[in-house]
From TrEMBL:
Protein known as: Dihydrolipoyllysine-residue succinyltransferase component of 2-oxoglutarate dehydrogenase complex
Organism, as annotated: Cereibacter sphaeroides (strain ATCC 17023 / DSM 158 / JCM 6121 / CCUG 31486 / LMG 2827 / NBRC 12203 / NCIMB 8253 / ATH 2.4.1.) (Rhodobacter sphaeroides)
Protein role: E2 component of the 2-oxoglutarate dehydrogenase (OGDH) complex which catalyzes the second step in the conversion of 2-oxoglutarate to succinyl-CoA and CO(2).
Location of the Peripheral subunit-binding (PSBD) domain: 213-250
Reactions that this protein is recorded to catalyse: N(6)-[(R)-dihydrolipoyl]-L-lysyl-[protein] + succinyl-CoA = N(6)-[(R)-S(8)-succinyldihydrolipoyl]-L-lysyl-[protein] + CoA
InterPro entries (alphabetical): 2-oxoacid_dehydrogenase, 2-oxoacid_DH_actylTfrase, Biotin_lipoyl, CAT-like_dom_sf, E3-bd_dom_sf, PSBD, Single_hybrid_motif, SucB
EC top class, as a word: transferase
Signal sequence segment: none
Ranges of compositional bias, category Pro residues: 260-271
Entry's Gene Ontology BP terms: L-lysine catabolic process to acetyl-CoA via saccharopine; tricarboxylic acid cycle
Cellular component, GO, one term: cytosol
Assembly information from the UniProt record: Forms a 24-polypeptide structural core with octahedral symmetry. Part of the 2-oxoglutarate dehydrogenase (OGDH) complex composed of E1 (2-oxoglutarate dehydrogenase), E2 (dihydrolipoamide succinyltransferase) and E3 (dihydrolipoamide dehydrogenase); the complex contains multiple copies of the three enzymatic components (E1, E2 and E3).
Ranges of Basic and acidic residues composition bias in the record: 207-217, 237-247
Amino acid sequence: MGTEVRVPTLGESVSEATVATWFKKPGDRVAADEMLCELETDKVTVEVHAPVAGRLVEIVAPEGTTVAVSALLAQIGAAEAGEDPAPEKTHAGAEAKAGAGESKMIDVMVPALGESVSEATVSTWFKKPGDTVAQDEMLCELETDKVSVEVPAPAAGVLAEILVTEGTTVAAGSKLALISSDGQGVAAAPKAETPKKTEAAPAQEPAPKKDVEDAPSARKAMAEAGLSPDAVQGTGRDGRIMKDDVARAVSGASQAAAPTPAPQPALPRQPVPADDAAREERVKMTRLRQTIARRLKEAQNTAAMLTTYNEVDMSGVMGLRNEYKDAFEKKHGTKMGFMSFFVKACCHALKEVPEVNAEIDGTDIVYKNYVHMGVAVGTPSGLVVPVVRDADQMGFAQIEKKIAELGLRARDGKLSMAEMQGGSFTISNGGVYGSLMSSPILNPPQSGILGMHKIQERPVVEKGQIVIRPMMYLALSYDHRIVDGKGAVTFLVRVKEALEDPRRLLLDL
């Protein structure tokens, strides 16, 4: 029996994909972890790698086929007797291994990056070829769309070769470097400079490209980089262009001439006088900032977003908090803030208006019988939204402790991928920065987000009398495709009622 190649997990709420491109054909030799094909979902492109070395016996799902998670894609059989099942290695690490006799080379691989995250950028190398490393010593840091990932040394030895330079985009499971267990086979010079070889590449006449379709991820990367297929040398089957080929082309072009990439904003940038240009600074956006920009624009383009407003008298919450805050902190070891009241009030309102806690998946509405509350936190590198899971089952003290813990980890850049995924509703507190009124933007695929604002004393009328009360404006942005105006207004009114009379939360009214 051969080894089955099946569709991997595609990410949260994604159940099927389309086979976009096969990079191998039946009869081809494959190495373990070599990319076999690419799948396209409605959100991301997923690479499928060979689970073992051998020979591709059969392709069960041809290009264009829609497949579900765990569906059979292909079969890999054992290599023929006396045949090396792995294709020839071309990187210098393999050459070092072959010439090192008993020297043992240990691969440094990109670790798992988290659900729905398939690639990262090599941010910083902390070691250079020839350096001695201890087991678990940090070698480099990767930057994903959401968090930074540290890559430790899998074993003690000498860093023989760096295969991927800083700034390069790598996929989960790809090779970053080689460690020599006994110091043999160490590269004489840092191989991180290998992209410079592309400077000599134009001297070679490129082979005429066959009429083949490039990898979808490569087409996307070329579009983002502003490259034409003619400027990229494909290394895939039949000369097709792979994502790594685009990365090498971009890296080589930047090192050869360091040109300023042509900006591609919606509106062209106006010419800047020379004296002003000398006082400007151009800084590349971090992956986190790029992701924030992309997701916010996707929210505007996808959802029918609308915002409804109300105001709440915070006297009840403030009075209760002032009365019990010392006893609360003494018993629970954490301060009583306002966020726990808002989380509990939202959980209470979501039970009455469940569509605000739901999401659209294709032509289905997915109602959540739980509340995973996202709490937006500002950090030096951008806004992140850690999730308080099952907030509807937690008490005030549990909520306050969890929010404090997640907020601290967010500011220190220590949040894990799991801690920022799966939220069903979000609260954003712009009031901590002094915002009096704003319209929060949805956090897809969620259908609702509550914006809190600054508490400000204002004159209000109560029973015919003008009195001064601590007031806060509330804003609920919602996806009008799933939430009607009546539901949105009802939700906000229930939050207002619960905050103005916190006893309602205890009595579930």
